[in-house]
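Supplementary Note 3. Input sequence used for the single-chain structure prediction.
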Amino acid sequence: MSAASRFLRRAAAALALLAALAVLVWAFSELFLRPGASQLTRIRAAVSAGAILLLAATFESIRRTQLKERYALLWVLPSLAILLLAFFPRALDAVRAYFGMEYGSIMAGVAFLALLTAVFFISRTLSRNENNITRIAQRAALLEDRVRELEGRLAKRENPDREPPPRV
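The predicted structure, written as discrete structure tokens, is reproduced below.
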């Protein structure tokens, strides 16, 4: 693919993203931020905008291969859940009644639990990768030692008077 066609594809993607953002801004201003809108409506608009931006950033990271799909689920699923709860606030009425919390506090709690789950999953993956790296480093050290030993044997066969290379 030529540099010009890559530039055109990127420019088209940027224009499409700008157009989508313009439509979102217009929709939010018309539906949620008009004069006389309640505080709950404004909170829902802010939460929705944040979830949409997080979804857009996640999908863009996947597209650029900066984020693998299995990790993207950590951000897509909570974002979709938060977005659905922002558009359907009555779904939280039972939780609100039980805990006696306001809508904003519940949404903050949901976001906190989602982030806590993501951090736990990432920590688990990091620990597993650390163990794998340790195991690979140990294996590489054993193989390196074996190669040096074989080089020493080979050098002795080829030139019996020469000393083998020193071990590190």
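Helices lie at 3-31, 39-63, 69-87, 93-99, 103-158. Residues 32-158 form one domain.
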